[in-house]
Write a structure and sequence with these properties.
Helix content: 10-25%
Radius of gyration: 37 Å
Largest sheet: 8 strands, mixed
Length: about 550
């Protein structure tokens, strides 16, 4: 008989999950062969831990298939299949009876039945047909339920079974703990950013979308989310000697690669170790968590582990399989920000409401964020602050239509200096800003002048309208305060000189950018965990995480 186990705790990393299951088995005195179920077909079978009390000795432990279980009773799927066949026979019988009742109700051409008998039959016929219809409905409902149980039993019988040879000093019912890595478990962060007014900080809410596709719902389990992944073992570095020799061209050879067979590992632990392990799991990190029910948020403690942060969700959670993500709220906090409008009219005449804050005030991993302006959804952005906590970064809160910006280039003037054998071109731009709102707004305006990469080309600034110039980047900034209904004009002018027998070429230098942000979670073919092209299958071909369907 296969001992069953239930999930009691899950520890979910960004692209995998540790599942902890509990169960009991009956042992007789002496040698016992026991079979333990619960491990899924999507589990990492070469890594599992099986724990028993300290007075139990393990002689042998290995993973086998259901068909290898000795002395197993009739399979559940076979028993259910037999019940389904019995119901099919009953359905067929009642269907024939229904047709027979209808046929017998046709008295045309029959002289052997009296009128009174015909009337009695016709009066009773509707009730009889309704009774048969009710019986058929109940049988079909029962068959549908059995069919679902049959499909579930088939999936259960596909799961691997752990066979353990144990030696017990006495007959007893003992507890056990089974722990394994679930390859389909993962979670991804998602933020909500809310702007209320220029005088209030940003409200940031960190959410998590949890995925698992093990074909098993994890009901009422303790759940911990980790910001990283289990570390891969690496040996200590070795300083190998460097040898110098004459290089000789190698001969061409053909190589064949030998396959390798994975070995299923196991570990046994004492009752004290089992208890310590359980307590350790409870203490592996507390992080602020909020309960979604009735939109009320429950805070929890934060725990910084050696290599990652742990978030322990309050209470027990249901993590359902094959969903588009089980959403939970981790924590919320306020971020002090300096708000202003940003305008870069050389690139785009639109203005954007921007929040500027310190990197240290946003201690969260990069992720997408939904932006709300006074409870109005403004859009979605990708947030990835710089790594330097002393630096500031700007967060776009969406387009702002309170400001109208127009950038105009005046006619260029080109002249030649015969003595210096050079050409000189003067360029002038005017930037007009109008505040259409009923309040004073702060505006950061950016423009630029070219940066020379050749000593023979000279760029001289003529007009800046009190703007500040970054000489290395050629970036010009104006920080202005614009009153309601007012208009201001900025002027930017510069000249370029170069040898008159040459031509100049302007190109925009590529900026040093951060890695491309991962695609949206729901993008087709994109893995929600690693962000790669995971393919069209059920699981990502790169990291094994479940793909959104």
């Amino acid at each position: 008989m296969i001992a069953k186990s239930t999930v009691s705790e899950v520890q979910i990393y960004r692209n995998s999950a540790s599942v902890i299951r509990n169960g009991e088995i009956e042992l007789k005195e002496g040698r016992n062969i026991v079979y333990i179920g619960g491990m899924t077909v999507t589990a990492k079978q070469e890594d599992f831990i099986l724990q028993f009390p300290e007075n139990i000795k393990a002689v042998n432990v290995q993973i086998i298939s259901r068909t290898e279980v000795e002395g197993d009773e009739e399979k559940e799927s076979e028993a259910l299949q037999r019940k389904i066949a019995e119901i099919d026979y009953q359905i067929e019988t009642y269907t024939l009876l229904k047709e027979l009742r209808k046929t017998n109700g046709n008295f045309s051409g029959r002289m052997d039945v009296s009128v009174e008998a015909q009337e009695q039959y016709m009066v009773a016929l509707p009730r009889q047909l309704m009774d048969i219809h009710k019986q058929l409905t109940e049988l079909n409902d029962e068959k549908d339920k059995l069919q679902k149980d049959y499909d579930k039993a088939l999936k259960e019988e596909e799961k691997p079974v752990i066979m353990a040879e144990l030696v017990s000093e006495s007959a007893a019912t003992i507890p056990f703990i089974l722990r394994y890595q679930e390859k389909t478990g993962s979670w991804s962060p998602k933020y909500e950013v809310r702007f209320k007014s220029n005088e209030e900080p940003l409200e940031v809410s960190m959410k998590a979308r949890i995925y698992q596709n093990s074909d098993e719902d994890w009901k009422q389990v303790k759940t911990t989310l980790y910001t990283g992944n289990p570390a891969k073992f690496q040996g200590l570095p070795v300083l190998d000697p460097v040898q110098v020799s004459i290089y000789e061209e190698p001969e061409r050879r053909s190589f064949a690669m030998d396959g390798s067979t994975a070995f299923a590992g196991m570990a046994m632990a004492s009752a004290d170790a089992m208890s310590a392990s359980s307590n350790g799991m409870m203490a592996m990190g507390m992080a602020p968590m909020l309960k979604m029910a009735n939109m009320k948020m429950e805070e929890a403690e934060i725990s910084e582990e050696e290599t990652m942060t742990a978030h322990v969700l309050p209470g027990l959670k249901d993590i359902l399989s094959a969903t588009n993500g089980n959403i939970v709220v981790l924590h919320k906090f306020d971020v002090k920000a300096d708000y202003h409008l940003l305008s870069i009219p050389r690139v785009d005449n639109k203005c954007f409401l921007t929040a500027e804050m310190l990197d240290a005030d946003w201690p969260l991993p990069p992720a997408y964020a939904s932006v709300y302006i006074k409870d109005l959804y403004a859009g979605e952005i990708y947030v990835d602050p710089d790594s330097d906590p002393s630096e500031k970064f700007s967060l776009s809160l969406g387009q702002d239509e309170r400001l109208t910006v127009v950038r105009t280039e005046l006619p260029r003037k080109t002249s030649e200096a015969l003595i210096k054998n050079q050409k000189k071109q003067i360029r002038t731009y005017k930037i007009s800003l109008t505040n259409k709102s009923k309040e004073t707004v702060k505006v950061l305006v950016k423009d630029q002048i070219p940066v020379s990469t050749d000593k023979s080309i000279t760029v001289d600034v003529n007009k800046l309208s009190d703007g500040s110039l970054d000489v290395d980047k050629g970036e010009v900034k104006w920080e202005i305060s614009l009153e309601s209904g007012s208009t201001t004009e900025l002027e930017l002018g510069y000249s370029i000189s170069w040898p008159k027998d040459k031509k100049i070429h302007e190109k925009r230098a590529p900026l040093t950018s951060k890695p491309v942000p991962p695609p949206q979670i729901n993008a087709p073919g994109i893995c929600p965990s690693c962000g790669g092209q995971g393919g069209a299958g059920k699981f990502c071909v790169l990291c094994g995480s479940p793909m959104n369907r």
